[in-house]
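We store sequence, tokenised fold; for instance:
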Amino acid sequence: MQQVKIRIFQPWELQNRLKLLGAAFLGSWDEKDIYYLQPAGSFLKIKKAKNLSFFIKLRKDGKGNFMKEVRMLKNPGKKEKELEEKFGISKIVEKRVRAYSIKGTEFRIQSIPELGDFLIIESKAGNTKEIIRKLGMEKPEFVSLAFSEML
């Protein structure tokens, strides 16, 4: 799975382009990511979205973040307290997500009040350059930092 993150400045135009390309709208929701203190290059967070909570460990390489471990939490309050006591909270990132899909590729437009708007593209086919071209993004501003690093 290939994932890219791109800063965008006119999300409504991107939404229109996705619709013109035949993208299916998957929905919109609020997300909250709670990041815990970790050594440089590692990330530990709990993601809360759509009444679900996930425990996520990430490792960073030169191209961005890649998931290492993801588990759905049955008792998120207990895990949050445990992680906060063990590591401490580093950042909390709240965002609004609008998701679309075209032929196995997922597009998430994420709006973060403190940072602006971003497009996350996840493609199993690894054809993100072609997808970006079809979206009319001539000089995309790729972002390799985690949102927690940008705050």
About this structure: The CA atoms of residues 44 and 57 lie 5 Å apart. The helical segments are 11-20, 76-86, 128-134, 147-150. Residues 76-86 form the longest helix (11 residues). The chain has a mean pLDDT of 91.
